[in-house]
Amino acid sequence: MHDENSPLLDGAEEPVVKRGRRCNINCGSIRDPTSLSHRLVVLTLMCFLGFGSYFCYDIPAALHTQIRNDMDINEATFMQLYSWYSWPNVILCFFGGFLIDRVLGVRVGCVLFSSFVLVGQLVFALGASVHHIWLMDMGRFIIGIGGESLAVAQNTYAVLWFQGSDLNLVFGLQLSMARIGSTVNMNVMGPVYSWVASFCPSNTLGVSLFLAASTCVFSLICAIVLGLLDKRAERLGARKAQKTDEPIKLTAVKDFPLQLWLIFFICVGYYVAIFPFIGLGKIFFEEKYGFTPAQSSAVNSIVYILSAPCSPVFGFMVDRLGFNVTWVLLAVVATLGSHVILAFTFINPWFSMCLMGVSYSLLACALWPMVAFIVDQCQLGTAYGFMQSIQNLGLAVISLLAGLILDGSGYLMLELFFSACVGVALICTLLLLLVDKVRESGLNYSTKTRDRIAKEQEKSQDTRFDPKSVQGIRNRYYSRIGAQIPEHLFAQTKVSA
């Protein structure tokens, strides 16, 4: 304890941030919260926060056959395991940021939500052990309570520790690690089940799920250690505490522009054709292409495998080039093509799934940042929360429909259904491209054009709408009624400036 505080006591008048910057360049002491080595430790813990959550999310997909056989359920009941995960997030995503910012704090919130994921996985495993599907559904519900809110806490940590040019890279690394968790699950849980069956044949599924809970314990330990490091850094003044007094504005939803609603519909139409498909994909590849369970798990996880390296690369590319709507359109068309190929041909599914994985990564990097282009900063939390809530509502409903379609009509109709969902996303993307062009909202501008317009607005905004000047009041009146500011008034404003 004395060693930790003694440097501060010896140089009490010198801010720790300045010392940290010199340490970052010269010695990089891991004990200094502002040093590169310390921040890398923090980044590693941040990335592993969601590892257990994402690992457990796709356990039903990895053990599709085993769960159906051991629990004696049909596809519709099986897909309820995904629906019950999504139902709580229809509401909680909207309030998760508020709970972290105003009630719990990021440290307590992160540990609490990690605990929810762990408890949910234990209940899920207990349900398999006592052979009660309703208890397994309850476990998935509890995992859902913690999983999505934990992602919000993870993003909050990223903003607190890494700002400016580092932030996009950090988000990309977090997404990559999350998908690595899903990938490891897809390829590990099958062999784990077989290994457990060799010494515990009477409760193979339950024991396997209890072993999977160890990943949640690992993530909970990361949350606790990260909370301690964050508390120490805040106490030493090594990072600035960011608190918001902005209340949740539920009424802001009615003022969302048409472009934002189209983005919401694209998000729902696209993602409901990805995650539920992966949840049912393993058996699809076994039945249609004659793959072994190991081969099916490998091809089913390729979407997540590719997203890990592709997400940071595509994020960097979209940041540098712009043209977000064009990239979204390209990703949607490519994903629709992959579903059509899977439905009507016997081409090796590795091609279609690789195409889907690259498209999925590209869409995520191009779609989500567009919200910030058309929504005021004070409404970003509301907009993103509403977007996630609608997405989870769509996933909950479509997961149930997918199970019913598969039970009643088979995989061909299911693939046609997923293709129709992507078709809705395609129509909304074309409408977004048209509306953006008509309203000149700038969603499909190049990065250079956006930077130029931002500089021009920065030069003129202060004088055109200054509330302390007569000209500013007049100009704001013209702007509010949607009329163009008369040129002579704008000229007078510029002269007065």
TrEMBL record:
Keywords: Lysosome, Membrane, Transmembrane, Transmembrane helix, Transport. InterPro entries: MFS (IPR011701), MFS_dom (IPR020846), MFS_trans_sf (IPR036259), MFSD1 (IPR052187). CDD domains: MFS_MFSD1. It catalyses: L-histidyl-L-alpha-amino acid(out) = L-histidyl-L-alpha-amino acid(in); L-arginyl-L-alpha-amino acid(out) = L-arginyl-L-alpha-amino acid(in); L-lysyl-L-lysine(out) = L-lysyl-L-lysine(in); L-alpha-aminoacyl-L-histidine(out) = L-alpha-aminoacyl-L-histidine(in). SUPFAM superfamilies: MFS general substrate transporter. The keyword Membrane applies. GO terms for cellular component: lysosomal membrane. It is found in: Lysosome membrane. One of its GO terms (molecular function) is transmembrane transporter activity. The keyword Chaperone does not apply. Residues 39-437 form the Major facilitator superfamily (MFS) profile domain. Pfam families: MFS_1 (PF07690). It comes from the Eukaryota. It is a multi-pass membrane protein. The chain crosses the membrane at residues 40-60, 81-100, 106-129, 141-162, 205-229, 258-278, 298-318, 325-344, 350-374, 386-406, 412-435. Belongs to the major facilitator superfamily. Lysosomal dipeptide uniporter that selectively exports lysine, arginine or histidine-containing dipeptides with a net positive charge from the lysosome lumen into the cytosol. Could play a role in a specific type of protein O-glycosylation indirectly regulating macrophages migration and tissue invasion. Also essential for liver homeostasis. Homodimer. Interacts with lysosomal protein GLMP (via lumenal domain); the interaction starts while both proteins are still in the endoplasmic reticulum and is required for stabilization of MFSD1 in lysosomes but has no direct effect on its targeting to lysosomes or transporter activity. This is Lysosomal dipeptide transporter MFSD1.
